[in-house]
Amino acid sequence: MAEATKTTRTVTEETFTLTLSADEFRYLKGLVGGEHEGSGGGANGRIYAAMTRNLRANEVTPEPTTYTVWGVVYDLSAEYRDTSDDLWYFTGERNSAGVPLVSCRLDPDEVHEYANWPLTALHAHYDTLTRV
């Protein structure tokens, strides 16, 4: 007679994150690198390998702080005034094409249509924007 048995095993894994300054990292890397690779049941070799592999692969690339529209470079941390004297600011968001979005500073209680415009559309509409 055929028999089947199903076994389920639960494994718990712990991970730890150590946050270091650049000086602390260099110091610890020097300590670990000075030990025998097999020290700590092989942990020393694994730790040193992790500390010396390309760490930049895990870095997040910061968003650019400027954006260029038809040869005009805009500082995304600045505010700009249009030819109607309205004040525009960058929201920190981008549309699906990666274009920074801008909103106009009007009365905070007023519902208006001047929110989340793509910078390219604002530039095309007003042509001249003056940094404040």
Question: Brief overview, please?
Answer:
The chain has 132 residues and is an alpha+beta fold. 23% of the residues lie in helices and 22% in strands.
Give the fraction of residues assigned to helices.
10-25%
> Would you tell me the structural class of the helices and strands?
alpha+beta
Radius of gyration: 27 Å
Order of helices and strands: HHEEEEEEHE
Beta-strand content: 15-25%
Distance between the termini: 86 Å
Report the count of strand segments. Answer: 7
Shape: elongated
Mean pLDDT across all residues, rounded? Answer: 81
| Strand order of the biggest β-sheet | 6-5-4-3-7
Number of helices: 3
> Which segments are poorly predicted (pLDDT under 50) over 5 or more consecutive residues?
none
Q: Main sheet, how many strands, which sense, barrel? A: 5 strands, antiparallel
Indicate the topology.
Blueprint (H helix, E strand, L loop, with lengths): L21 H12 L9 H10 L13 E4 L2 E4 L3 E3 L5 E8 L5 E6 L11 E2 H8 L3 E2 L1
Helix pairs in contact: 1-2
Description:
The protein is of the alpha+beta class. It contains three helices and seven strands. The protein has helices spanning 22-33, 43-52, 119-126; strands at 66-69, 72-75, 79-81, 87-94, 100-105, 117-118, 130-131. The strands form two sheets. Strands 6-5-4-3-7 form a five-stranded antiparallel beta sheet. It has a two-stranded antiparallel sheet with strand order 1-2. Helix 1 crosses helix 2. The radius of gyration is 27 Å and the shape is elongated. The model has no long low-confidence stretch (mean pLDDT 81).
